[in-house]
Design a protein that fits this description.
- This protein is of the alpha/beta class.
- The chain has two domains: 188 residues, Periplasmic binding protein-like II (D-Maltodextrin-Binding Protein, domain 2, 3-Layer(aba) Sandwich); 198 residues, D-Maltodextrin-Binding Protein, domain 2 (3-Layer(aba) Sandwich), CATH 3.40.190.
- Strands 1, 2, 3, 6, 11, 12 and 13 form a seven-stranded mixed sheet that branches. The protein has a four-stranded mixed sheet with strand order 8-9-7-10.
- A hairpin with a 2-residue loop joins strand 4 and strand 5.
- The termini are far apart.
């Protein structure tokens, strides 16, 4: 009798004591603020999946540290269930079977790839395969200080403008404001990070690599590329329209730089200055050399599922949910990137009262995928490129010589067997 009573109590208590919940690990590089936004975006998924708990593994560190953390987890046999894949990591993960092809799952989950920006989705595609669902993106554009333009009686830049027009405006905006013989306000700023100056190189008719991505010689050191590099570095060395220091964002905040190459990712940093009246800003597409078609780059991230994910079905559901309209709508408050869904991005532009968002969407008409989405060794190439700029700007090496030497160095990297 006592045994039966104990057994009955145990049966009654069992449902309340069960711990058979499923925990999904979501890895990303979000900082504290972004993690809070992502938690809000995850709430509807949790509500629709009782017994499923999604735990963010947010590194809040640089992309290199994040990438190594994910690779280590996969190698150790404990991969995250879903992780954020940067455009430059697509070759390393997709081309080596580290992530699953999501294409076979999309139809049954009601996900239509046509809803996504084709250029952005193309970053994560290999033929018919889709190795990540794009979460968000940004093309590279220019942000400018409206107050500095007003003081110089210059109209705000719009639409299709050329390098000659840009340089003329930058020269007018470069000023000695206190009469001590030194420049206090620069028209623009040059950033030696390749991610920000390569779209300028493209808009001048040059490139770092040749069309198939297999070599640099004949392209980085071509007459078109050398001329573009000479013009770009000339902002500092010849025209003196850009400072030698590279704390460019701080200089822009303080009104000492009028135009800055940027992406959507800097809007959260700029917005507090705009909201409290310290800055009045606008955005405009990159100018291009006369006779060359406008071009820029688009950088993107997507949600991927490791090949060894323990809960493949749930993981795919989570990845597609996080890149769909509900999660994107919740995430818009962060303002870090544009949503990858065409309709969502268009809605953002329609509702925008600042005039900023339509510029980013127009820039997408001239945007192309970055080399990092195609070339496995690109991270090594990208890390080496600032040395070429430093040789030109700091050591006064002729751009033709610096470009030729760098092209040979890149060729050696591209022929290496281990990415």
């Amino acid at each position: 009798m006592i045994r039966r009573a104990v057994a009955a109590v145990a049966l009654l208590l069992a449902p309340a004591c069960r711990t058979d919940r499923t925990v999904l690990a979501l890895a990303n590089w979000a900082d504290y603020r972004e993690s809070e936004v992502e938690d809000r975006a995850l709430a509807p998924f949790a509500a629709a999946h009782p017994g499923v708990v999604v735990e963010q593994q947010s590194s809040g560190t640089g992309l290199m540290e994040y990438r190594e953390r994910v690779l280590t987890a996969i190698a150790a046999g404990h991969p995250p269930d879903v992780f954020l894949l940067d455009h430059s990591d697509v070759p390393a993960f997709a081309d080596h079977g580290a992530v699953i092809d999501l294409a076979p799952y999309l139809a049954r989950l009601g996900v239509d790839p046509v809803r996504y920006d084709s250029t952005v989705l193309g970053i994560f595609r290999r033929g018919a395969a889709v190795y990540a669902i794009p979460k968000g993106y940004t093309p590279i554009v220019i942000v400018y200080n409206k107050d500095l333009f007003d003081r110089a009686a210059l109209p705000y830049p719009t639409g299709d403008w050329t390098w000659d027009e840009f340089r003329r405006v930058a020269r007018v905006l470069t000023r000695d404001t206190d009469g001590d013989g030194r420049v206090d306000q620069w028209g623009t700023a040059f950033d030696s990070r390749a991610s920000l100056w390569i779209p300028w190189l493209w808009s001048g008719g040059g490139d770092v690599l040749c069309a198939d991505g297999s070599r640099s010689s004949g392209c980085l050191d071509s007459p078109q590329s050398v001329a573009a590099i000479r013009w770009l570095t000339g902002w500092v060395t010849d025209d003196s329209i850009a400072p030698r220091a590279e704390d460019n964002l701080r200089l822009f905040y303080s009104g000492r730089v009028a135009m800055l190459t940027t992406g959507h990712f800097w809007i959260p940093n700029l917005r507090p200055y705009v909201d409290d009246g310290r800055l009045r800003i606008g955005f405009v597409e990159l100018p291009h050399r006369a006779g060359v078609q406008p071009q820029t780059v688009v950088y993107a991230s997507g949600l991927a599922v490791p090949a060894d994910a323990a809960h493949r079905k749930l993981s795919v559901e989570l990845a597609t949910y996080l890149a769909d309209s509900l999660a994107e709508a919740i995430r818009l408050s962060a303002g870090i990137e544009l949503p990858s869904l065409i309709a969502s991005a268009q809605t953002v532009a329609i509702l925008d009262t600042t005039g900023w968002e339509p510029v980013f969407l127009r820039a997408m008409h001239h945007a192309r995928a970055p080399w990092g989405a195609r070339v496995a060794h690109w991270r090594v190439v990208e890390a080496a490129l600032p040395a070429m700029i430093d040789r030109i700007v700091l050591q006064h090496v002729d751009p033709a010589v610096a470009a030729r030497d760098m092209a040979r160095r890149i060729d050696a990297v591209l022929t290496a067997t281990d990415p």
